[in-house]
Amino acid sequence: MSDRPAPGTEMIFQWRKWDGSPHWRHECVYLGTDQWGDWVGQPAGYHSFRPGAAFDAETPNVTLVPPSADFALTVNRDHPRDLRVYIDIAWDVRWSDDPLLATGIDMDLDVIRRTNAQGTYVDDRDEWAEHSARYGYPADVMERLEALTLDLEERVRGQVAPFDDATGDAWLDRLAALGLDRPLAR
After folding, report:
1. Can the peptide bond before residue 162 be classed as cis, meaning omega within 30 degrees of 0?
2. d(CA 111, CA 69)
3. Strands 10-16, 101-114: parallel, antiparallel or unpaired by DSSP?
């Protein structure tokens, strides 16, 4: 593990697509590390944008950057659309040479857990199919990520750590203790 910023330090999590085009860019703060990897947080009011879209976080969330580099787990607290867990299936999620920048390639598929009747499900299979043809995802990458998606869906459904409420809540508590919420620009 290379040097990480001090907890509470502002940083960026930058996503791109397989062809290198820009995707979501999230303002975050570094929170720390545990046995699952590094955690970053996005207090309410922090900004996210991509070409053609932008939003400010309505509620706090934390994201795990695991050493496996093939997903990013985001846990929300009190989300207005009942979104508790959102896992971006990814490629090459890692820290860049800049200690204030984490990067990853968004691979379309997402594992989602809502606290309402929708429960846990895999999202964006249509985007996965479209982009695999457009970007020419290698067959071995597709096979690996499809298997990972199904495995993560089961682990989220079973609330196996770090996909359980207790792990995410501990990091959300650390984020709250920093007192960094920004007022939402309306």
Report:
1. yes
2. 16
3. parallel
Q: Which domains are seen in the chain, by residue range? A: 10-174 (2.40.380.10)
- What's the pLDDT tens digit per position in 103-155? 999 999 999 999 999 999 999 999 999 999 999 999 999 999 999 999 999 99
Q: Counting every residue, how long is the chain?
A: 186
Q: What is the pTM of this model?
A: 0.94
- Which residues make Cβ contacts (< 8 Å) with residue 34, sequence separation at least 6? 162
